[in-house]
Amino acid sequence: MSNNSIYILAIESSCDDTSASVFHNDVPLSNVIANQSIHESYGGVVPELASRAHQKNIVPVVDQALKQANISKEQLSAIAFTKGPGLLGSLLVGGSFAKSMAMALDIPLIEVHHMQAHILSHFIKDPAQKTPEFPFLALTISGGHTQIVKVTNFFEMEIIGKTLDDAVGEAFDKCGKMLGLGYPAGPIVDKLAQEGNPKAFTFSKPKVKGLDFSFSGLKTAVLYFLQREKQKDPNFVDKNRNDICASFQKTVVDILMDKLKLAVKETGINRVAIGGGVSANSGIRQALLKAEQHLGWESYIPKFEYCLDNAAMIGIVGYHKYLEHNFADFKTVSKARYQMQ
Is residue 43 very low, low, confident or very high in pLDDT (cuts 50, 70, 90)? Predict the structure, then answer.
């Protein structure tokens, strides 16, 4: 098959969203996502329920992705899937399906690292987003990860900073829980923050050397602050929820931006891209655009659709791996913990 007619089916099932996407070269023809609302009442993702829901969703989601792309499964060049990291039960559903289908169609199988895919989502050919040149710095921010990655090319990435405890998305969710917000709390905190005063309250920023992050201290500071204030006024949270969200979000964004500024200074690279679920946050987006204006950075912000877990980001990695003939062995196993290579 010629390089100008590559069709990749991509499957993403690392957490609680089942997603399938079909690519024609680097252009997505479909990107179907089935969400799982079952976890909301538990205040977090229940792994066993997530894997069962994936089993129920994967066939209709793949079928829909092929139909929207208007191609038959016989036209596929390869199947790409998320190998890890993520919830093992969820990963196994996507991995087993991808293996079985690739084997049945006698086409190559391509394994993809979930966080590498978040970074390379900037290379999805889409008029709504611009593509960075190499090298660039990537800030990957999600419920499970907070990392600064030096990206030299499609397959050469070095983690130069990471969280020592909580991921940034986890900090948003835990803070939201303290404020009595639903799950996932991150988007709700962001929405309320836009109505509040970011300078209403001050939370101290953790002192961590180098490019690493820490969010557990901030979470504890918010907890003690709320306990103190509620002793004085039991209705404190209800009266100040928007301001608390705005002040908390500003602190988180300041922590992220301080480390990014240091990374730009240390590496001399001023192209900065963000990826992962928290890159949908309005505060971090505004801060990056401000840095573009005042610090001369080139900022790259993904389309909302590509911030959250989705199969299009798996598809773009699959396409570039296909060009390199970088195929997986059918004995490959899904990994809950998986180092970026």
Answer: low
Arithmetic mean of pLDDT over the chain:
92
Question: Using CA atoms, how far apart are residues 320 and 317, in angstroms rounded to an integer?
Answer: 5
8 Å CB contact between 83 and 335: yes
List the one residue out of 75, 85, 94, 86 whose CA is nearest residue 33.
Answer: 94
Mean pLDDT of the region 194-202: 97
Residue 111 sits in the same domain as residue 66: yes
The residue among 271, 200, 273, 284 whose CA lies nearest residue 242 is 200
| 108 is a domain residue | yes
Among 4, 72, 60, residue whose Cα is nearest residue 33: 60
Give the domain extent around 52: 7-122+307-323
What average pLDDT score do residues 266-281 get?
A: 95
Residues 141 and 25 in one domain: no
CB 146 within 8 A of CB 274: no
